[in-house]
Amino acid sequence: MANSLKTIKIIALASAVAVATLMLSACGTDGKAAQTKQPTVDAVPVEVASAARTPISANYSGTASLVADHEAQVVAKTTGVLKKIYVEEGDTVKAGQLLAEIDDADARSKLGSATAQMHKSEATFAHAEAAIPKQLIPQFEYEQDKYDLQDKRAALETARLQLEYTRILAPVDGIIAERSVKVGNMMQTNQNVFKIVGMDPLQAVLNVPERQLGILKPSQSVQLEADALPGKTFSGTILRIAPVVDSTSGTFRVTTQFHDKTGLLKPGMFARVDIVYDHREDALTIPRSALIEEDGETAVFVVEKAPPPKPDAKADANKNVAKNDVKADAKADAKPAAPPADALVAHRRLVKVGYSDGDHIEIRGGVDEGARVITVGRNAVRDGTAVQVIGDAPAKPQALADNKTPGANG
Question: How many CB atoms lie within 10 A of CB 22?
Answer without folding.
Answer: 11
